[in-house]
Amino acid sequence: MAIKGGRLIERQPLRPMGNPRRRLLLTPQIADFLDGQVEGSDFPRWPADAVVSRYIGGYIICVSLQGKSASYIDLERLQGVDEVWTLCFRSPKPGWRLLGRFAARDQFIGLRLYNRFEINTRPKYEAAAAQVIADWHGVLGSDEPIRKSTIDDYLSGTIRNANQDQT
Amino acid sequence: MPIKIKRDKRYMREYDRAMMRSAFVSLFWSVVSERRKRGFKLQDLAKALSKDKSTVSRWFSGQPDAQPNWTLNTVSDIANALDLDLHIEAQDRITKVTYTPSGPVHVRVNEPRDLTESRGPRLVPMYKEDPTTLTSTG
Q1: Tens digits of per-residue pLDDT, A48-98?
Q2: For residue A167, is it within any domain?
């Protein structure tokens, strides 16, 4: 489904899911990249498609709100920048990060895709985050992302909080 | 020139497996996380299953390619440990008929009835083309 005059496309899981809980909207360029339609893309990969489907279907995702680098985190709010999140794909190598913001609860807008080496230092990811914020205003105008304090404010469905003791 | 990966049958098999693993992990975590609000701990589950707490914790983290490939016995054991009844059903991707271990599911519809029939909604098969499912109770 094209949204915002074709500037965003709603991503669908590879198989229909009974009652999708969350929405993922991407730029057409990122959608094409994830589908392997762009020169140099190593996508599609089934683990990445599964991450997308788990997110959309409301399945378990591991979320970090307060910055915790760990290989098992699926979705993380970047620290020191204004409401920029990253959805993590471990495959293909070297690992990819979809940067974006939440327009509403359960509605993530993915605006930039980087391999993890492109944003592995603070100056690099701050520059990437600034680009995401600029893209956001380009696509969504004066709409603001949600700014909340708990994971529940951003996401429904099944969540594992990476910042909580898991005993 | 790198090999272009296609979403072919083999690819979809891996994807479907990952989603199946994820569905069970997600299902059990939704139970565990609700119960944790009332004091339940992962180590309670680990103890009930005679597993290390770290093993059980690992089950519920990780990306789809790292999620546990439980046997059906393990699924049953976890359900027992959490005092859950599992309900299994499947849906035909083409006909959309839903199946359970006791057969296809029939939907209840309210439609004008012949007054000579007994009262109550009729059970109408979802998959009308199959004469073997044309059973109804009036």
Answers
A1: 999 999 999 999 999 999 877 777 899 999 999 999 999 999 999 999 999
A2: no
Question: Percent of chain B beyond pLDDT 70?
Answer: 71
Tell me the DSSP string of chain B.
-PPPP---HHHHHHHHHHHHHHHHHHHHHHHHHHHHTTT--HHHHHHHHT--HHHHHHHTSS-GGGS----HHHHHHHHHHTT------EE-TTT--EEETTEE-EEEE-----TTSPSSPEEEES-TT-GGG-----
Residues of B near A (Cβ–Cβ under 8 Å) read 2, 4-7, 11-12, 14-16, 18-19, 22-23, 25-26, 29-30, 33, 41-43, 53, 57, 60-66, 93
Residue A49 to residue B15, Cβ atoms within 8 A: yes
Total domains in chain A come to: 1
For residue A166, being part of any structural domain is answered with no
